[in-house]
Amino acid sequence: MRCPYCGSPDTQVKDSRPAEDSSSIRRRRVCPGCGGRFTTFERVQLRELIVVKKSGRRVPFDRDKLMRSLEIALRKRPIDPERVERMVNGVVRQLESSGDTEIESTQIGELVIQGLKTLDDVAYVRFASVYRDFREVGDFHALIDELSHSEGEQRADTVVDAETAPGGR
């Protein structure tokens, strides 16, 4: 691993342990050249994924780009970073297990939209407004109405479950 401070190609691992979600290995490293210390993460990659953009251009899948877009959508929201990490891991696992090496960018967007819908409503609306290219206020109204409608159905299902459960109303 190349040192990010001096560029030396020879660094030493001082400590290795599983990351919080156990899907990666956290390594503490030190550079013998400059003494700089830094952390790296090692993850399993089942296959090399290529993203096919709307323009037809093909680029390698970048997990960090996905994380950055989620960080923007979740900015100033009270969401535990571990939940975000689990969501990203879930999206990546779904993409890798699909069997395809080329993934449409729209497929990634839809997986992220689904994940954000269960994670945080505000982040969901923020991401959807950019992803779906909202042009006017009506686009926001339609999305919020859809979100409110689906929440109303979930509440109704919960009430029905409570009423039909043994010992219910």
TrEMBL record:
Keywords noted in UniProt: ATP-binding, DNA-binding, Metal-binding, Nucleotide-binding, Repressor, Transcription, Transcription regulation, Zinc, Zinc-finger
InterPro entries membership: ATP-cone_dom (IPR005144), NrdR-like_N (IPR055173), RNR_NrdR-like (IPR003796)
ATP-cone domain: residues covered: 49-139
Span list, region Disordered: 1-26
Origin superkingdom: Bacteria
Basic and acidic residues bias (residue ranges): 12-24
Record GO terms (molecular function): ATP binding; DNA binding; zinc ion binding
Cofactor note: Binds 1 zinc ion.
Zinc finger (unnamed): 3-34
Cofactor(s) this protein cannot do without: Zn(2+)
GO BP of this protein: negative regulation of DNA-templated transcription
One matching Pfam family: Zn_ribbon_NrdR
HAMAP family recorded: NrdR (MF_00440)
Functional description taken from the UniProt entry: Negatively regulates transcription of bacterial ribonucleotide reductase nrd genes and operons by binding to NrdR-boxes.
NCBIfam families, alphabetized: transcriptional regulator NrdR
Family membership: Belongs to the NrdR family.
Record's protein name: Transcriptional repressor NrdR
Gene name per UniProt: nrdR
